[in-house]
Amino acid sequence: MLGSDVSSLSTDAATAAAQGLSIVVPVYNEAPGLALFHERLVTLATTLKERHGLACEVVYVDDGSADGTLAVARSLQATSLDVQVVSLSRNFGKEAALMAGLDHVTKGAVLFMDGDGQHPPSLVEQLVRHWIVEGYDVVYTAKAHRDNESFLRRQAVRGFYALINWGARQKIPEDAGDFRLLSPRAAAALRQLPERNRFFKGLATWIGFRQLRVDYEPAAREHGVTSFNPKQLIGLSIEGLTSFSVAPLRFASLLGLLLAFGAFLFGLSILWETWVSGKSVPGYPSLVVGLMTLGGVQLIMIGVLGEYIGKILSELKARPIYFVAEHSVKRNTPDSVAQ
Ligand code: UDP
Ligand code: MG
């Protein structure tokens, strides 16, 4: 049996750095900016090595890119950090790519970072310090503000988190992104979670340990466009919601109860009118409105049930989360390994 005891891995400042850091970068059609991104990582790795004695590795997960991303990734040099390139057999989505990266890391701590330059490498040293020096296990970042997003989108985000956290014991922090650092024991815990439908932000919160929030100013995308359109964001929200809460089901029950109570009162009032005041039932319009309301609500709630049943089905099929088509490892050049 897989043990669930990860406490044996120490977070003691003296031994933490010795475990090294793996940086997982999912890339999907990021060819134009990848070389520059890698250059920045090399600089970062050199700094981390010099100041903290931390050996780094980067794991690029090519998520079935259609442009030359894989070729660019293959050509990157392993100066001052090891470079792994994991190429998936097709586009599986960012969550699957993150999982693939997590499965391939060889160092202790894990940092998730986007390959489009929106997650500032300059912040990494601070995140690392929170882990090594202060012993935090999950250092997650949150956008300091959403001023550049539309009012509608901000309200939607707020509504989503209100719903997902409704009654939840472990609240998922609003605005937290995928840019986060996990200590070795937190990464080990995350790896033990068996589910196929993954919502990383939620899972990384759910595992517990010592968590810390760091606010940052997100940079604008340097090349290309975001791969998340509103339709995909809605998909991700439903995914997150159904993975982390039964709030929609509870809401369905409450609504059903409320409607039934309303119907009961309405029935009483009809009886009252007929018996006491002797008026006949006016009927038709109220009947149609009632029918339509009930029909609509029932259909919505069947849809909600369907979401959960679909989730059970995909967990039951237990398919692999991704397939690796190609995997290459370049070890750091000896002169920069020497310390
Ligand atoms: N990404 C991925 N697979 C996908 C979509 C995106 O690996 O199917 C990567 C992408 O290359 C980037 C990160 O996930 O490194 C974030 O994607 P994007 O910038 O499109 O999202 P946003 O920043 O708008 O949330
Ligand atoms: Mg981005």
Structure overview:
This protein is of the alpha/beta class. The protein has two domains: 15-229 and 321-330, Spore Coat Polysaccharide Biosynthesis Protein SpsA, Chain A (Alpha-Beta Complex); 246-317. It has helices at residues 13-16, 31-52, 69-75, 94-104, 124-132, 151-164, 184-192, 200-206, 230-244, 247-277, 284-317, 334-337, and strands spanning 21-27, 56-62, 82-88, 109-112, 138-143, 176-182, 211-216, 324-330. The chain has an eight-stranded mixed beta sheet with strand order 7-5-6-4-1-2-3-8, with helices on both faces. β1, α2 and β2 (56-62) form a beta-alpha-beta unit. The radius of gyration is 25 Å and the shape is elongated. The two termini are 40 Å apart. Residues 1-11 have low confidence and may be disordered. It binds uridine-5'-diphosphate and magnesium ion. Keywords: Cell membrane, Glycosyltransferase, Membrane, Transferase, Transmembrane, Transmembrane helix. GO terms for molecular function: glycosyltransferase activity. It is a multi-pass membrane protein. One of its GO terms (cellular component) is plasma membrane.
> For the record, what CATH class of the largest domain applies?
Alpha Beta
Helix content: 40-55%
Mean pLDDT: 81
Q: What is the assigned CATH homologous superfamily of the largest domain?
A: Spore Coat Polysaccharide Biosynthesis Protein SpsA, Chain A
Number of discrete helical segments: 12
Structural class, please? alpha/beta
Number of E strands: 8
Strand content: 15-25%
Shape call:
elongated
The succession of helices and strands, N to C, reads HEHEHEHEHEHEHHEHHHEH
**CATH architecture type of the largest domain:** Alpha-Beta Complex
* Major beta sheet summary: 8 strands, mixed
Small-molecule components bound: uridine-5'-diphosphate, magnesium ion
Overall tally of structural domains? 2
Strand order of the largest sheet: 7-5-6-4-1-2-3-8
